[in-house]
Amino acid sequence: MSTHTEAEIASQPECWRRAVADVPAHALPRPGERVAVIGCGTSWFVAMAYATLRERAGQGETDAFAASEAPSGRRYDRVLALTRSGTTTEVLDLLSRWDTPSTAITADPETPIMRAADQVIVLDYADERSVVQTRFATTQLAMLRAGLGEDLGPVVADAERALAEPLPDELISAEQVTFLGTGWAVGLAQEAALKMREASRSWTEAYPAMEYRHGPISIAGPGRVTWMLGAAPEGLRAQVEATGGTFVESGLDPMAELVRAQRVAVARAFARGLNPDEPLHLTRSVILSP
Questions:
Q1: What pLDDT does 15 receive?
Q2: Does pLDDT of 6 surpass 60?
Q3: Closest by CA position to 39, among listed 154, 189, 150, 141
Q4: For residues 131 and 95, what is the distance between their CA atoms, to the nearest angstrom?
Q5: In what order do the strands lie in the sheet with 246-249?
Q6: CA pair distance 137, 142, nearest whole angstrom
Q7: What's the CA gap between 96 and 268, in Å, rounded?
Q8: 133 partner at 20 to 30 Å CA-CA among 33, 105, 194, 287?
Q9: CA 125, 162, 239: angle at the middle one, nearest 5?
Q10: pLDDT tens digits for 146-164?
Q11: Which class for 164: exposed (0-12), middle (13-18), buried (19 or more C-beta within 10 A)?
């Protein structure tokens, strides 16, 4: 069975190249601005990754919030709203309540976000037919990383490798998977776990890597996988393998490793007789009634 999700996952390197070739610097947060990055679901996890990267690049204080949990009364120079659909209720509500200059990144120019935000970046070429978000999330992050001055050439090469390499059977058949990251990859670990849950209804968790030994490692064991996005803390592999569990660490850029996790999510869906294009209980956008 060929699915929209598979095609969209495979198209990511080309989408990333397009995104970094045309970075709309005029619409992105300026160096020194205090920025709140908001989103829901996948967009929240991308916001977490970007916030950490922006601070690490010395661009200014940057906080990431689920749109429903952003604190009222806190002052920012700019709000950056991430919303593939452009219709998510919590994002639109927040922009209507905050008297702060705003930029939105979306895939659909025919949605309310075009009026709700002061500036809008439209990545329509990265839009998706699948409910499960893959290429739009990573394409906007590629653009944001390029806007911080990163060279994405090696990252694109890593993504092509992640798409080309065969998937180990132990990742597809594992009873349980825990994703770990450090720094900006913590958000991507959360997103990898979400993709597994959405596409294949898998039992997945995600944590900052250094927190894993503070309790969550108790779930490790035979038939279970601890999957690191980025470089693992010293000694963690040995501790996981001592439980009989499998430890995965590829050395790829965490955003490229997320592509591999997306592929595994689809493969696990097929193994369970599920269609990743039609995840249970989900819609493309959460639109709440007044």
A1: 98
A2: yes
A3: 141
A4: 24
A5: 204-208, 176-181, 224-229, 246-249
A6: 9
A7: 40
A8: 33
A9: 130
A10: 999 999 999 999 999 999 9
A11: exposed
